[in-house]
Amino acid sequence: MPAELSGCLRVATDHASSREATMARKYSKSSQRKVGRALHEMKSGELHSGRSGATVKSRKQAIAIGLAEARREGKKVPPPPRSSSRSSSAHASARH
Length: 96
Hints:
Blueprint: H1 3-22, H2 29-43, H3 59-72, H4 88-95
Helix pairs in contact: 2-3
């Protein structure tokens, strides 16, 4: 590898690591552990949904359950995404 390219690569990785160091973490370590535990339970068939008690088979659902448990315990987790609801005029036209 030419010397000028290796210097560019080193600068790029240094820049990326310094940016990561200054940015705040979105998820805490304990919330990541919660998600990992939920995924492990899902793979072994032990994870059940809250209300119906049905076995969870979806990876996305397992992640959502792990994040919800972490939120309930007050861990650092971003708020859940807002559901995109239809506008009130769309609701009014659908009723008639």
